[in-house]
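Archive entry: two folds, one per protein. Generate the first.
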Amino acid sequence: MSSNAPRQPVRDLRFFLTVPHACSYLPGREATTLFLDPQESPGQGVYDTLALLGFRRSGRHLYRPHCEGCSACISVRIPVADFTPSRSQRRLAKRNADLSLHLRPAIYDPEHYALYAHYIRTRHADGDMYPPSHEQYRTFLTLDQEYARLLEFRLDGRLVAVTAFDQLEHGLSAIYTFFDPDPAFERRSLGTFAVLTLVAQAHRRGLPHLYLGYWIRECRKMAYKQAFQPLEMLDGRHWRRLIAP
């Protein structure tokens, strides 16, 4: 889906800063977030422009970290044409070949919410998304926009994972993935498989990039993003290759 919507100059948009709050990723640090004015509709043209500048979407909000004295959050993306899966990623793709994929609009679904709530309670009971609620889910992962989509992963009809993503003019943007935390599915590494699937989806649609959000060197939970090579990072206003350690 290619957008013909005019790109609104960034200087014509209004932004707001949050008050400093506890950082969700680095203990003992404070974070500040730059938000697009909620009165501005996150339409395709505006979104396309801001995504290139490192903005992400959460519900109706487009945002970017804006922390004084800290630049730990780095926007990263996979250049789809250059991506080559590793041996372990190829094995993982074969292991999940029995899953069926179903593309859905980003609207509320009780089955999706039940899996999301189970995932948060099991995997993230120590995080700021706990406890889960219907309202939290709706404001985070549902949006009545053409570019917002949910991709279901099913095993013999059973819902085992859902990944939320957006289709931009210049790539797909991975928003969030939740999956069945049952130990029986552990070897499937459904989070990693979701990323591999989105790379394949971007390639199929002729889109050059898959945006993976933010990567923090010191954050263990984000280390998985380095497994997708090559990886590009936003350095100021320019994207360049991130050298693998």
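Generate the second and append.
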Amino acid sequence: MGISGLVITFNEEKNIGKCIDALFKVCDEVIIVDSFSKDRTVEIAKEKGAQVIQQAFLGDGPQRTHGLPFCKNDWILNLDADEFLDKDAEDFILKKKYLEGNHDALSFRVKNFLADKLIDFSGWYPDHKVRFFNKQTAHPSESKVHQKIVAQNEKKVAVHILHYGWDSFDQIIAKKNQYSGWHAQQLYDQGKRINAFKPVLNGTVAFVRCYFFKKGIFNGLDGLSIAMIQAFFSYMKYAKLIKLQKKK
């Protein structure tokens, strides 16, 4: 029983080669759905033996769904370009432990890194994500940001994905700002409406939860910075939603 690696990309020349090499350790094919990258992402992917399909970005969930018909296998390992299987996850897949039980989606623990430092506080670990699923009964949601896998029988497994998403706080803030806009638009499209107190309330709650209850306070300046970034994201998501309400 084979496994298809599926990755959506845009300007990922820094990571895509390592990502594809890692996927081929457990997959017999790798499918790249690229949003017309301006760098060498497509060239590198083809050199590494991946099949590349180009598609203008449809949103996180729809873009992943677009790639499924190109995957010949039922089991899909759908990593981001800056994600890699830890050794325990590789062993889990190579030993075919995913076939034990009647599960169609497996949620792995994610180790998030800032440069080379593991962020294991402020709610960033254990951060569970479903990246491995059977497309016959499970599929990505239609959410345009932070999609989830819709499955019939999901299981959490204590193996890990390594996520090297950011080199600096600047990158985290920029990405969170981008995501906040996408989230606001998604909430608006879903009919969500809020009052002016919502951004302040949610931003404050996010900070208190991350800094005090999720152990950010014990991790110095990094703990404070991560808690403030989470508060910023929560605040901006709803502040931008209010702007959409007033505009439309």
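Annotation attached to the second fold: The longest strand covers residues 154-166. Helices lie at 16-23, 41-47, 60-67, 87-94, 169-189, 197-213, 220-247.
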